[in-house]
Amino acid sequence: QVQLVESGGGLVQAGASLRLSCAASGRSFIGYAMAWFRQAPGKEREFVATINWYGGYTVYSDSVKGRFTISRDNAKNTVYLQMNSLKPEDTADYFCAVGLSVSHNSGAYDYWGQGTQVTVSS
Questions:
Q1: Contact at 8 Å (CB) between 36 and 48?
Q2: Is residue 106 classed as helix, strand or coil in its secondary structure?
Q3: How far is Cα of residue 98 from the mean position of the Cα atoms in its chain?
Q4: What are the pLDDT digits (tens) for 76-108?
Q5: What local confidence, expressed as pLDDT, does residue 5 receive?
Q6: Beta 18-25 vs 78-83: how paired, if at all?
Q7: Which helix (H) or strand (E) holds 70?
């Protein structure tokens, strides 16, 4: 049974940093891309960042580029999202996802976590 478990969310003030983690288990993820999406209250889920298996190719949404960094540790089947200079508009539930393709499209990902909440106060 595949499981993706996110952690690291919380309540912070604007300008602070958080590091999210997502540990995947239940099957081999060799060759899989890993990604982060987020969903704010009353809004659709949106792409945040993705990283290929080797870690050498990353894509970010324009809204987080330069502030967030995605990375992974394949030995631990874990993907990270370092979030710096957080803004109130970053408030959302953050979900990790795993799929065979590096894509900003949520449909490209086969497995999803349950999410971790990030709240940024002004």
A1: yes
A2: helix
A3: 10
A4: 999 999 999 999 999 999 999 999 999 999 999
A5: 97
A6: antiparallel
A7: strand 68-73
